[in-house]
Design goal:
alpha/beta; D-amino Acid Aminotransferase, Chain A, domain 1; 3 domains; 4-stranded parallel β-sheet; 7 helices; 11 strands; globular
Length: 291
């Protein structure tokens, strides 16, 4: 049995997959909310949505993790030690992996930024909260969503063809599964803005070859995240990480609506199912043995 924990209203990410792609797994994957009074049962537990936990929610999740650990359950994503966006991006910049840096609003007093910058939330997945901010004067006039705004240095990842690419891959336990490549003429990419035969062929090649699997796994390991989706681009051939989402949308009915996107969904669906079932079948040891 797999238990999938989310902040209450965000269970749609896994529910959409079960409803549209794997209804036969509905009795083997149980959706739980951190807010509920959950009882420890044997199985594998995925602590999703850890970036949305704070304060009392984190402490509650930690207590449940400790109980499950003592029961010998397999546990993925420690609710406190798994890196959240700010710490992850700071660490990746410090280690020379990401060329760009991020700052909390109060840090602008002590730091000089590499302009342009933009604002985004620290714990949501809505994308940018501003256009590019090109001067300190513009930044002083910006509206921050306190205390959950991040000032992010812009990293231009355009390819030689002038297009931006956002690569996404999922970690499910010990496996890295390439998910998709989104193409756009705009630097902020939330959807597959462009799709033609050439781009689809490039995307399917990415899914087939999984070219960055080793580097991506190393970043997941650094972040202490066992389940989630990493979004990244390439700059001069080097991975630039935007975030790791521990409760990503997997596959929904909308994945099949556009005929040109259907091959991508179908190419991912099989490996994802296999990876989930491998979690269920694995011995009852935590991914991270932390009491």
């Amino acid at each position: 049995m797999i238990f999938y924990l989310t902040e209450g209203r965000h269970a749609y990410t896994m529910r959409g997959y079960l409803d549209s792609f794997a209804p036969d797994l509905a009795e083997r994957i149980c959706l739980l909310a951190y807010q509920d009074d959950n009882k420890p049962l044997p199985g594998t537990y995925i602590f999703a949505d850890v970036e949305r936990l704070h304060g009392r929610q984190t402490r509650r999740a930690l207590r449940f993790w400790s109980v499950l650990h003592r029961e010998g359950c397999r546990l993925l994503n420690h609710p406190q030690l798994s890196m959240r966006r700010y710490r992850l991006l700071k660490t990746l910049h410090r280690q020379g992996i990401n060329e760009f840096n991020v700052f909390r609003p109060w840090e602008r007093i002590f730091n000089r930024f590499a302009y342009p910058v933009f604002l985004r939330g620290e714990n949501d997945h809505r994308g940018t909260r501003s256009d590019l901010i090109r001067t300190p004067q513009m930044l002083r006039r910006a509206r921050f969503r306190r205390p959950f705004s991040l000032i992010t240095e812009f990293c231009d990842t355009r390819g030689e063809d002038g297009l931006y690419r956002k690569y996404s891959a999922m970690r499910v336990g010990g496996r890295i599964l390439p998910r998709h490549v989104f193409f756009s003429k705009h630097w902020m990419i939330k959807h597959a803005d462009l799709c033609d035969e050439r781009l689809l062929a490039e995307e399917l090649h990415y899914l087939a070859e999984n070219p960055h699997a080793n580097e991506v796994m190393a970043i997941f390991e650094l972040a202490g995240i066992d389940y989630g989706r990493i979004d990244y681009s390439l700059c001069r051939g080097r991975i630039q990480v935007w975030e790791i989402n521990t409760n990503p949308s997997v596959l929904t009915a909308e994945s099949l609506l556009l005929p040109q996107r259907r091959p991508v969904a179908e190419a991912f669906a099989g490996p994802f199912r296999e990876a989930l079932l491998a979690l269920e079948a694995s011995p009852g040891d935590s991914e991270r043995i932390i009491g």
